[in-house]
Structure formats: structure tokens, C-alpha cells
Amino acid sequence: MDKDINISVKVWRQRGPKEKGQFETYQLKNINQGTSFLEMLDILNEQLINEGKEPIVFDHDCREGICGMCSLYVNGHAHGPATGATTCQLYMRRFHDGETITIEPWRSAGFPIIRDLMVDRYAYDKIIQAGGFVSVNTGGVPDANSIAIPRDDAEMAMDAAACIGCGACAAACKNGSAMLFVSAKVSQLALLPQGKIEASRRAKAMVAKMDELGFGNCTNTRACEMECPKNISVSNIARMNREFIWAKLKD
Amino acid sequence: MTEINSKIPQGPLAEKWSNYKAHQKLVNPANKRRLDVIVVGTGLAGASAAASLAEMGFNVLNFCIQDSPRRAHSIAAQGGINAAKNYQNDGDSVYRLFYDTIKGGDYRAREANVYRLAEVSNSIIDQCVAQGVPFAREYGGLLDNRSFGGAQVSRTFYARGQTGQQLLLGAYSALSRQIGLGKVKMYTRHEMLDVVKIDGRARGIIARNLITGKVERFAAHAVVVATGGYVNTFFLSTNAMASNGSAAWQCYKKGAYFANPCMVQIHPTCVPVHGDYQSKLTLMSESLRNDGRIWVPKKLEDAKALQAGTKKGKDIPEADRDYYLERRYPAFGNLVPRDVASRAAKERCDAGFGVNNTGLAVFLDFSDAINRLGKEVVKAKYGNLFDMYEEITNDDPYETPMMIYPALHYSMGGLWVDYELMTSIPGLFAIGEANFSDHGANRLGASALMQGLADGYFVLPYTIQNYLSDQIQVPRFSTDLPEFAEAEKAINARIAKLMGIQGKESVDSIHKKLGHIMWEHIGMARDAKGLEEAIQMLKDLKKEFWTNVHIPGKGDDLNVELEKALRLADFIEIGTLMAHDALDRAESCGGHFRTEHQTEEGEALRHDDKFMYVSCWEYQGEDKDPVMLKEDLNYEFVVPQTRNYKK
Amino acid sequence: MWLLNSSIGKKLIMSISGIFLILFLLFHMSMNVAAVFSGAAYDAICAFLGANWYAVAATMVLAAGFIIHIIYAFILTLQNRKARGNDRYAINARPKGVEWASQNMLVLGIIVILFLVLHFTQFWYNMMFAELMGHHEVMLGDGTVASPQSGATFINYYFKGNILITVLYLIWYVALWFHLTHGFWSAIHTLGWNNTIWMSRWECISKIFATVVCAIFAIITIIFYLNGVGGC
């Protein structure tokens, strides 16, 4: 059964991108273990507001692990200690009475801090804008069943497409590399006949944009894969390397 | 009294849309470049519309409140998207999809709109596949389908339990392409706070930059609102935390009619409420009803034992289980439409048969499916949902039956639009869940994705041209015009007023009170007395909010509490309008259930003679009761019947 | 040039230079195996690889491989540190499934280089370098005079009964082992020659390969310590 626990929460507070941040520690009493992690932060914020302090700013939206808006580095793990789950899917059952929980924002040059735990992840959108699409306009497309796609290919594409763009991969990577995110999109579209046509162009454009935005170089530590809330595989990175090297050799 | 003109084209049902397209006015490519369109929202409707308009050559300004357009709440839709492809050769057709949707909506939707929706549904699937959406496929390589509530054919296309995500990412990729090409200017973390009218036409918006806190002005030739629904009025719902009705509400306050506000959908399969601190409710996909069987105990003492925790679901023998949906609705069984399933669950729980500690839950049991198909098959189909459920509740659904309860999910009501998706303000369009849409009084599963994308890809990009064709001579507007200045001033005054209250209560605590009033009085079952009480209670709550809310921080800075307060101020008013509408509609239909109007068996009782209309509410000013106009629904092609899911 | 500008290009250079160094390691290992059985055979190889144009050319290529690998390691690490941003995580746990070696390749590489310096002063400096300088005799610390082509003499001199050097070499192999366990499959992965099925296979092959190579080097070193060249 879920119990009530008392915890300390050590949170990174930072007013703005240029200002210096520091940790603040707060005490929380009688938190039911059936509470979600973000609800625990809601309770903390309610407490701070009642004390006349400013609440902690953090990103969150759907709270069911699909929108990719929530982030947070909890006790040294992107999206906290649970595997295959986002921070919003984390429950207080994972923590014990008396524990100090350290909460930090994503720290990566590609994701500047906006305030407290909120970071700017628009860089990921820019990478998609550089080529993460199939160049078709609305209308004038063939019937959906006109091209049969092997089920395994469709499933593999779906595995890659499950990426929610939360940024955990770059945040967890010691190199601040966005390769897992980029490769997931490159892979998804390269695996499908619809996307294959411009696969080379896409791989080159997306990698170039990723490099331009200052993300680091992949050294295959696999930390991204291990911390990814959607278990996106680094085999996508191998596929992207293949696509990219092949595209460049063709040129 | 103003005449409501829905501009439905003449001709036979199946030809209306083709006729419209054949005769509508278009804008030539050179002129498209000179026209700006604001699209607010980046969900399925907003992103697809913004992308499609930009592809055609219009300049698009696109807004979203999240940090990225990819995060709009359409992403959370799980089950699937309907289309009348008839790939399964099970007798589906455009007409059947149209008919199921009209019937599912309890005959409160426009025939012409719904037919158009069914007609373009097939193009949506084609479009998404072309974009690289990885729909589920069979071993032969062709697309797979599954069945969904309210239909007797398999017409739902899906991508695991993440169909909404994949469709949205498809639309987002199309949108991203246009942003990259410079045809769409994207404004993230911007919240629309007002629509600006010049000479009676919508010509721009006022939006708050959520990072800097600055109120900014944007002008365009037309404004499209795709800001989703308003069920977060109830505080607890399956909507995302930031989903809100404010953009639509501001349009209403500027003169756009708000249609059928009382029609909201309560989804039957959600994880039950577990505590006061709860921030939102989690939906478990409706697809679970394909293989899961819903039941409560037959005996009251078993229910009592379950509530006390002395018994578990699996302790109750088969003979003592009441599969009430299969019992009451033999033809559709566990696959009855959502409103029916929700109400049936409430009925059993109200009678004392609830199965969790609060008495507000029923079982969704997979033991039959596991025995029949094997655990591996069930795992492959629903594994991620089961894992999600276990993480939330700490119960293993492979071992003990899941517990579910209905929760607020979708609003069928919204901004009134004509056949062209234009609101009653010229130049202001509403698409997706934000409009009162094609779902009548109840939406069928897997139809929201269909409608959002239909509006955005295939309807609005046509109909908006009919409006814009005579705007080509109109030069771009300056945001220095007095109308913009005035609107901005009003917004700043509103923010200053909120910041000046400095009361005692947090925004969330007042929102919870609102949610409580809504759930108790304007929830799954409503009656005249309760609604009248609710109107009074909401009046008091509004006063409480405006005198006692506490917002820390500053107005011209990043301020999440202020964002929430601005939304809550509107939610309270939306709730009030819902109560007015629910009170007016003295019948039961779809998601709107008035306890005074039910059959002897407890089914919804419509009064087609009196309520065969769309209620269109017109704003009259602060603290004045709104006025209702009626758009009569003339069923030319379908004969309204009592919905029957029994046989 | 994409090889130099793009992140994947730079990684490709690391990968290919790494694979090249692995091949060299295999070659060097076979030489050592020869020394275990026969000092004369080893000396013959040493003579063959002395100051001949082909040996010098091969050495230059090899050196280039090393230098590129090392320079790129530093360039990439510096870039990666920059990409990490200014603030570091206060708590950063290594996720389950992430090898320690993979996150410490630079450190391991530096250890490997330091030992390489030792190795060079002992062998290459006295052998090929001495020959290039035109010396036909080299005087060792204890006064022994040897031909720069007689590798066996050097081995005996440095290893036989010398516990310190032996232990240092064994430490070197441990660092090398760590470096190889990640480096091998990572190089393959960077080339794109990987997928979900081969992922664990390559990692396994990588471990086996590193273990075999390092074990053989270590055994040979111990034999040298105990019995000197031709000890078997």
C-alpha cells in the first residue's frame, strides 16, 4: 500500500539564462506515495505560494508521457530513476521517507535555461525544420494502400517514430549530442518507401543543422538510449551514420 | 432576431461538397502571397491548416502556447482515426460513416457537415501515409484496421496506442517544412488573449509572450482559431494542463456565437481519481474495450468488500459478476458509444456497486482475453497501456482487473461555425475541437482526429479562400491602428487588475472549487434545480476569484500563475454558459443527460419536436445573461431515431 | 569537406583510424608471439622492420594514424565539453547499461599514450630511431652493447626478472582492454554497420576481442619476465 512520506527537495533556481543559479532546499511533509512526481511539485508550489514565495517554474503539459514537454534531471537521471517513463509518469513510490531529491534542469548548451527548471528546446524544432519531413503537399497523393510496406519495416519505423522530442537524449549525453533524436526521425522516414526518396538529402540537412546548433559529437556511450523515456534504440544512430556516410560518398 | 445562416450548399447530400468546391471563389497564386492568415494552435487542426495554407502560398503566422508546435494535446489521442476506406470489405462506405457519426451524435449535428467529414476521411489516410505516418500494417504490407465504439465495422486506422501522436507529428512535419521554407512564421510560447476586429472583421490577435510577459499585437487578413476544447473547466479532465478555452471565449466576447456549450464528452475508460492532490486524469485508450470486459459485482456485499479492500476483483466468481454493458446492450456490448458506457458506469456506482475505495470505479477485465488469446498477444496489443496503468496504480492488470471510471474528455460544443467553418464574425474561422463541430451531442471514438485533420487539410484551405477572394485589394494592416491599441490596453488592464487583487487563495484552489461545482451539477447527470444552483454558485465563485485570488510575481514577466489565472477567469464564465445551455436544453441527448428526461430503462430521452436545434449563445456584456439564438437542424436525408445499441 | 566539418565525418575519422590501430595491434601481437618461441625469428623480423624505406614509410603511416586518432580525440572532447554547457550536473548517475569505458575513453586513451611513451623509449628509440640516426650499436643502462636490430636483447634486458616494468605493462594492457572493449564496437557502429540484432553481438565480440588481444600480450609479457625471449 502507498504510504505518506516526508522528503527534502533540492531544486535548481535560476531567474534567467544569464543569471547565476543555485540550489534551494525545501521540506515536504506527508506526501502520499501514490502522488505523481509533478503533483508533488504542484504541492510544493502551492506551499511556496502560500508562503508568499515565487513558485518553481517547470515545463509540463499532458502529464501522461506523450507530449514531451516535461523534462527534469532527478537524482542524476533524465526523467528520474524509472526507465521507459517521462517525469510526469514518475510516482513517489520510487522514493523513500527522509530522502533528499535533487532536481536539476536539462543542462546542455543546446538547451539554454529560461527560468528555474524550464529550458528552451526550440533547437530540436529547427533540426526537424531542416529536413525532418517528407516533401509532399496536401492533396494529390496516391491511395494509402497503393504501396505495400513490409510489416517489420513499418514496425521499426514506428519504434523510431515514438520519439517525443523531450530532449532527454542530449541532456543525458556527456557530449550534449542530439544524435538519438535526429537519428530517430532520419530512421523513421528512411525505413518507409515514402521517405526513402529524399533520405540522403534529409540525413545531410538534419545533421548539418544539428552540428550548426552546437550539439556535441556522439561517442556511442548509449546513455541517450538508456535514459530515453520511449526506449528509442541507438541502432537508429547506426542507420543514420550509414545514410549520412553513403549520401556523402555518393556526392 | 438575427437569422442564423449556416450557408449549407444546395443539392443532394453526396454532392454538396463537390458543388461547393466547384463554385466557390478562389484566390490566384500571386494574390495569395499578399494575404496573411493567423492560425492559433498547432494541434491536428491548427498544424494541418497552417501547413496547407502555407503550401498554397498564403503567409501564415502560427501560434502555440507550448515550447514547440509538436506538443499540442492532439498528441495524446491514443486509439485511432476513422475513415470510410472499406479496406476490410466489411460493408463500410462514406454513407455508413456519415450515418454512424450522425447517430452517434444523437442527431444534433448538421447533416451536410458530417457528410463532408465522412467524404474527406479517406483523403486524410492517404495524406498521412504519404507523410510517413507509420500506421499499423498486416503481414501482407497493407494497412490494418480495428473496430471502435459505436460502429459495427472495422474502420479505425491506428499506430499502436499513439495514433494522435503519429498524426500530429505528420502534420507537424508538414508545418516544420513550411517554417523552414519561411512560409509560416512560428510563435511558440505565445498565448492568444484577444481577437482584434476592424470594421466588424477579424483582423488580428493580441497575444502574450509567455517568456517575457509582454503583450504583443499581430495583424492578418483572417484569423483561424484552432485552440481545442474547454473541458479543463472541470479542473480534472484528460486534457493537458495548459489546455484552455480562453481563445474561443475571447472570440465569443467579441461577438462570435458559442454553440452547444453544454455538450461535453465524458470518456468511460479513465484511471479513477485517487486523491485531492490529483492534477489530471489519465485516459486508458478506448481500444481496451475491444478485448476488455466491463463488470461490477452482482451482490452488494461483494461491492462493499471490494470498497473496504477485503476482497479483490479476482476473488469474485464468474457467476457473481454483472457484465452490465453486455447485459443491457447485447448488440454492441462493451463497444457502446462513450456517453452510454459512461452513464452506465455511473448508474452502477450510484447504486452502490463501485469497486474501489471511493466507490467510483468499475472493472475492466482482461482475463477472458488472456485466456482466449494468450498473454503474449494481449501484451503485444495493449502492453504499453498496461505498463502505464501499473505505474500509476501499482496494480498489475495481467493479474487483477483494471479499475476505470469516466472522466471529462472532449467538448463537442464550441465556437459556432457555418459550413465554411467561419464564425459569426467575418474573417474569424474556428476549426478542430474549438468549433462546435460535426459531433452533435456526442463524439464517436476515433472521430476527433478525423475531424481535426479534415478541417485543417481539406476543408478550411478551400473555404477560407471564398472569404479571402474579396480581400485581395485590402493592404496589410498596421498594428498601430487604434483597434489594436485599445485591445492591448484592455488586456493590460485585465492583467493589472488580476495582479492587484493579492488575495489569499491560489489559482488552483479556486479552480478545484470550480471543478467540484461543475462535476456535481453540470457533470454526467444534470437537472434543472442543480443547474440553477450552479449558476448562483458560479456567480459567487467568480466574485471570490476576482476578490481573493493570489498571484505571485509580476504581470510583465514569465508568470505561470498569471497564465493560469487568466484561463481560470474564462473557465468560470464558460462554466456558467454551460449551465445556461444545459438548463435550456430540457431533454437528454448524447453527452447531455437531464435526469428529468429519461426512459423507464434509464436511457436518454430526446425531444426532437422542441430541441432539434443548435443553441448559439450571443454575448451581451459583462454580468448580463447571454441570449440564445437557434439554428434549426433540418434532417433531409436521415430520419432521426431513438439511438438503440441493444439490437 | 564533410569528413572534417560534420560531426559524423569527424567520428568516421576516429572510427577508421581506430580500426587501423587495432589492425596494427594484431600485427604487433603476432610479432611478440614469435619472440616467445624464438629470439632469432624475432630479431629477423626486427631487422626486416629496421631502417628500410618500406618499414619507415609504414611507420610514418602508423604514426599518422596515431596522431590523427589522438588529435581528433582532443578536438571532439573539447567540442563535446562545450556542447555540454557551462553548468554541470550536481548529481549525474551513470545509467544502467552504460559501460564505464565508453564515458572515459579520453582518460583511457591518455593512459595508453603515456605507456606508449615508455614503450617507445625502450624499443623504438633504441631500434628504428637509432638506426635512422646511423648508429649500429646501442648501449643499454647496464653497459650491454646491442645491435638496434636485435629486439630480443632489448626484451630480455627490460623484462627478464624486472617486476616493475612487467607490472607497468600489465596496467597498460588493462587500460588498453577498457579502451578496446568500447572502441571496437563503437568504430563499427560509427561506420553504420549495426542494428538492433547486431548491437549486443558486436559488444560481445568487442569484449572477446579485447580480452584475447590483451591476454595474449599479458601472457607474453609474463613469459618474458620469467624466461625471457624464446622462453617456450
From TrEMBL, chain A:
Cofactor(s) listed: [2Fe-2S] cluster; [3Fe-4S] cluster
Record PANTHER family: SUCCINATE DEHYDROGENASE, SUCCINATE DEHYDROGENASE IRON-SULFUR PROTEIN
GO MF entries: 2 iron, 2 sulfur cluster binding; electron transfer activity
Taxonomic superkingdom: Bacteria
SUPFAM superfamilies in UniProt: 2Fe-2S ferredoxin-like, alpha-helical ferredoxin
Domain 4Fe-4S ferredoxin-type residue range list: 154-184
Family statement drawn from the similarity comment of this UniProt entry: Belongs to the succinate dehydrogenase/fumarate reductase iron-sulfur protein family.
Designated name of the protein: Succinate dehydrogenase / fumarate reductase iron-sulfur subunit
Gene Ontology biological process: aerobic respiration; respiratory electron transport chain
Family matches, as Pfam families: Fer2_3 (PF13085), Fer4_7 (PF12838)
UniProtKB/TrEMBL annotation, chain B:
Organism superkingdom: Bacteria
Obligatory cofactor(s): FAD
Classification via InterPro entries: FAD-dep_OxRdtase_2_FAD-bd, FAD/NAD-bd_sf, Fum_R/Succ_DH_flav-like_C_sf, Fum_Rdtase/Succ_DH_flav-like_C, SdhA/FrdA/AprA, Succ_DH/Fum_Rdt_flav_su, Succ_DH/fumarate_Rdtase_cat_sf
GO biological process, any: anaerobic respiration
Keywords per UniProt: Cell membrane, Electron transport, FAD, Flavoprotein, Membrane, Oxidoreductase, Transport
Keyword Translocase attributed: no
Subcellular localization(s) per the UniProt record: Cell membrane
Residue numbers annotated as active site: R338 (proton acceptor)
Residue stretches making up the FAD-dependent oxidoreductase 2 FAD-binding domain: 36-449
Catalytic reactions on record: a quinone + succinate = fumarate + a quinol
Topology of the protein relative to the lipid bilayer: Peripheral membrane protein
Predominant subcellular localization, coarse grouping: membrane
Pfam families assigned to the protein according to its UniProt record, in alphabetical order: FAD_binding_2 (PF00890), Succ_DH_flav_C (PF02910)
Any single Gene Ontology cellular-component annotation: plasma membrane
Domain Fumarate reductase/succinate dehydrogenase flavoprotein-like C-terminal residue range list: 511-645
EC number: 1.3.5.1
MF terms (GO), sorted A to Z: electron transfer activity; flavin adenine dinucleotide binding; succinate dehydrogenase (quinone) activity
Family: Belongs to the FAD-dependent oxidoreductase 2 family. FRD/SDH subfamily.
PANTHER family membership: SUCCINATE DEHYDROGENASE 2 FLAVOPROTEIN SUBUNIT, SUCCINATE DEHYDROGENASE FLAVOPROTEIN SUBUNIT
Listed name of the protein: succinate dehydrogenase
Organism: Parabacteroides chinchillae
Record lineage: Bacteria, Pseudomonadati, Bacteroidota, Bacteroidia, Bacteroidales
TrEMBL record, chain C:
GO CC, one annotated term: membrane
Keywords per UniProt: Membrane, Transmembrane, Transmembrane helix
Superkingdom of the organism of origin: Bacteria
Regions that span the bilayer: 53-78, 105-125, 163-188, 208-226
InterPro entries reported in the protein's UniProt record: Cytochrome_b-558, SQR/QFR_C/D
Official protein name in the record: Succinate dehydrogenase / fumarate reductase cytochrome b subunit
Source organism: Parabacteroides chinchillae
